[in-house]
Design brief:
Shape: globular
Strand order of the largest sheet: 7-2-1-8-9-12
Distance between the termini: 8 Å
Oligomer: single chain
Radius of gyration: 21 Å
Largest sheet: 6 strands, parallel
Length: 349
């Protein structure tokens, strides 16, 4: 396998923009610059690649990527997602001629969903705060219940059905052992600034698309009000309490990724949406052929774990250990843990 040459960073590239939540690229200027780059370096259209590389970018959105976002992924350093995006954008620019396709997942939410405080109330009729778990014990004891107004637009006014469904949902989560239901502050609301991609990564994906003449794919996830959707491939719970289907899996994306010779994965957060997505991808691979795990390369320096600072120098919640354990499990299954700052030829293939 012979890779195309690494490219120089564009003269206009500024890594500091990874810390600027307000910045967004001039998309027409990106188009013009990309076409000039392709001419100057004789960059071939992506469909001609003999060795196909698919870059999967998970939830690289403003609400996760900047301290002003409602669910900033700072990691233990406090600058996690911003540092990740600076490295990721550089990697994408340098390896533009080597990456065949990009797909960005977009966490996409509405104001009332099962993982938001707006969906619930306590026994005094008050909404609970974010960053807490909802358990089956909470529901059975009556400490927490569904906000009764939610049923009017989620299940046609059938509050009894909805109460049974949320108990079924929490029980299914607890039995699966991956997560308990966790309440997050409102984030990635469709139509909000926080839903948009971080500008520095958006610029890099557009530069790739225009220079390689390949569509920049997008996969929204997470708008179903009655299930979490950490993974782009599958909601956390697929069933209703009375045996019906609640949601379906995204098998088409699995198939599209596996058609590539190499799948690169980066994004936020390593402890949640990256972890769950890679878990589901690995499960799909193991059903087909476990050797296919060797196609997957996880850019470990382009992802961080969720932490919730306590304002006193510590953390109310720190999911770093869960992220590290997941990465080791993926490596044990045959996936590759790599760094974006190392040359691709040192680890690809």
């Amino acid at each position: 396998m012979k890779l195309a040459p690494e490219l120089p960073l564009p003269e206009s590239f500024d890594a500091a923009l990874a810390r600027d939540a307000r910045w967004s690229p001039d998309q027409q200027l990106v188009f013009e610059s990309a076409r000039e780059l392709a001419r100057a370096h004789a960059i071939a259209p992506a469909h001609t690649d003999a060795f196909k590389v698919h870059l999967l970018l998970i939830d690289v959105q403003k609400d996760f990527c900047f301290p002003s976002g409602s669910l900033y992924v700072g990691g233990r350093s406090g600058t996690g997602a911003m540092d990740d995006n600076a490295r990721l954008a550089q990697f994408m620019h340098k390896n533009l001629a080597r990456i065949t396709e990009t797909t960005c997942t977009l966490d996409t939410h509405l104001p009332f969903q099962i993982f938001f405080p707006s969906f619930w109330e306590d026994q005094n009729g008050r909404a609970p705060g974010p960053h807490r778990a909802i358990t089956t014990d909470d529901l059975r004891s009556g400490r927490i219940r569904v906000n009764p107004e939610v049923a009017s637009f989620v299940r046609g006014g059938d509050h009894a059905w909805l109460a049974k469904q949320v108990l079924h949902y929490c029980d299914a989560l607890e039995r699966a052992g991956r997560y308990t239901l966790w309440l997050w502050p409102p984030h990635c609301l469709l139509g909000s600034d926080g839903h948009a991609l971080a500008g520095i990564v958006h610029e890099a994906r557009l530069m790739h698309a225009f220079a390689r003449q390949m569509q920049a794919w997008v996969e929204p996830k997470g708008s179903h009000p009655l299930t979490e959707n950490y993974s782009v491939f599958s909601p956390e719970v697929l069933t209703e309490h009375d045996g019906g289907a609640l949601a379906t899996c995204n098998d088409a994306l699995v198939e599209r990724l596996l058609r590539a010779d190499a799948i690169l994965v980066a994004g936020q957060a390593a402890s949640h949406c990256v972890k769950s997505s890679v878990d589901d991808l690995l499960e799909a691979i193991q059903r087909r052929d476990p050797r296919l795990a060797r196609k997957v390369y996880l850019l470990t320096d382009c992802m961080s774990a969720v932490t919730v600072p306590d304002g006193k120098g510590g953390f109310l919640a720190d999911f770093t250990a869960q992220a590290e354990a997941a990465l080791q499990r993926f490596a044990d299954a045959g996936m590759h843990l790599v760094r974006s700052t190392e040359p691709m030829e040192a680890w690809l293939g």
